[in-house]
Design a protein that fits this description.
Blueprint: E1 14-18, H1 22-33, E2 37-41, E3 53-55, E4 69-72, H2 77-89, E5 93-96, H3 117-120, E6 139-144, H4 155-162, E7 166-169, H5 175-178, E8 186-189, E9 192-194, E10 197-198, H6 201-214, E11 217-222, H7 232-241, E12 245-249, H8 254-262, E13 274-279, E14 282-283, E15 286-287, E16 299-304, H9 310-319, E17 327-332, E18 340-345, H10 349-354, E19 362-366, H11 373-376
Helix pairs in contact: 6-7
Bound molecules: S-adenosyl-L-homocysteine (SAH).
Length: about 375
């Protein structure tokens, strides 16, 4: 994308910000200092100067009336896209947070050397929070953000994100959690960098080392627990090799969060004496699991990343001896207001899921404990009518 650098004045001009992405909120503060007439549309609580109007409701097209500039900073790429589309129709400039390819304006740094992370996702915006001398190295906190509900952050995780100078986050970190991060921090999105491609793991590892050279408190924020299917180990291995100080802040892993919020205890004296966490991730189109190890009827199986391979997983378990009638549940968007639980049996769950338009992230729980949900469910999100 090519940009022309221009300076514009926004004094008394209506600017609209949709969503509370921290990068958007940082721009709200900048716009306020320019005396722009700023409106923020969001259901999330947000901390902004008193001169800003916060509209606690859904975005509607009429919000674009009389606008000069728009920032699409919701947590949803689809929603941001539809806002951008409406702006294009009205010839309105729209910055899409985390999506430089689709933004019609981006902010440039005062020194004009770097493009601001708001749209580019690159490191190096302002000098805020940078360590005094380049030779000093900061500290990296590898922080587990839990499964989505911000109340499930640990006290330490909250303190680290509030005080961070730089935050490297990925796809699984929910918008309300990002909204709790220091809005002045440098934000780098490591999740879906471009067209569904994840930043390669070695680039993330190198980025953390690089950021620690510039910032005192770098937070690597990951969904769930960083040491459970999170590649947290690989990231701090590089830090250790490069002699960068680090710490690990554990988080509530998806298995615990989803189990609790769907009323499925992972162990129970009558149903399961053990519980195993496996990944259903396909490698070369195949699931690489030791099926023999998963046949014990008294063992709960939790499958991370199991949606694509769901059919194959259920079939293989039956083939290797688990009863077709074994209760099994798929938990979608666990712990979030959009949580949905599809509960069935090993034999029937794939069909139920196929006709239910399920969206990631999802977690699969298999075993007798799933039957306890009928009695133990307590969390009633808006959308789950099951
Ligand atoms: N480190 C993370 C797991 C990363 S692997 C943790 O400890 O939870 C990513 C997988 O985690 C997803 O494919 C999904 O299976 C699971 N997951 C993470 N958050 C989830 C959520 N809120 N609801 C359901 N599954 C979730």
């Amino acid at each position: 994308m090519k940009y022309l650098s221009v300076s514009i004045t926004l004094k008394d001009r209506k600017c609209l910000v949709v969503g509370t992405h921290p990068q958007a909120i940082r721009l709200v503060h900048e716009l306020a200092t320019q005396q722009a007439n700023v409106f923020v549309v969001s259901h999330q609580p947000v901390s902004v100067p008193a001169t800003i109007t916060v509209l606690d409701r859904e975005f509607s097209e009429a919000d674009l009336d009389d606008c000069w500039l728009v920032i699409a900073g919701t947590g949803s790429a689809a929603e941001n896209q539809s806002i951008k589309h409406l702006c294009d129709i009205r010839r309105l400039f729209c910055n899409v947070i985390d999506d430089v390819e689709n933004s019609s304006w981006v902010v440039t740094d005062q020194s004009a050397e770097h493009t601001v992370a708001t749209a580019t996702g690159t490191a190096g915006v302002s000098d805020k929070g940078r360590v005094g001398s380049e030779s000093t190295t900061g500290m990296v906190s590898l922080v587990g953000a839990g499964p989505g509900d911000p109340d499930l952050l640990t006290v330490r995780a909250l303190s680290r994100i509030r005080n961070a100078d730089a935050v490297v986050y990925d796809r699984l970190v929910s918008e309300p959690i990002l909204a709790l991060c220091n809005p002045d921090a440098e934000f780098v999105y490591a999740g879906k960098a471009k067209a569904n491609h994840t930043l390669p793991q070695n680039s993330i590892n190198a980025l953390l080392v690089e950021l620690a050279q510039s910032y005192s408190r770098v937070v690597r924020l990951k969904g769930g627990d960083p040491f459970i299917f999170g590649r947290g180990g690989e990231e701090i291995e590089t830090l250790a090799d490069q002699h960068v100080a680090f710490e690990v802040v554990p988080g509530i892993t998806a298995a615990s969060g989803c189990a609790a919020f769907s009323g499925i205890p992972l162990t129970h004296r009558d149903h399961a004496q053990s519980c195993i966490f496996v990944t259903g991730h396909l490698r070369d189109g195949k699931i690489n699991l030791n099926w023999q190890e998963l046949t014990d009827p008294q063992q709960t199986i939790v499958v991370y990343m199991g949606l694509t391979g769901l059919d194959a997983i259920c079939q293989s378990l039956i083939q290797h001896g688990r009863s077709q009638q074994t209760p099994a549940a798929l938990i979608e968007q666990g712990t979030k207001p959009a949580q949905r639980v599809l509960a069935s049996t090993l034999a029937d769950l794939p069909d139920l899921v196929a006709k239910s338009e399920v969206a990631a992230p999802t977690l699969l729980i298999i075993g007798g404990v799933v039957s306890l949900r009928d009695k133990l469910r307590w969390f009633q999100p808006e959308h789950d009518s099951s």
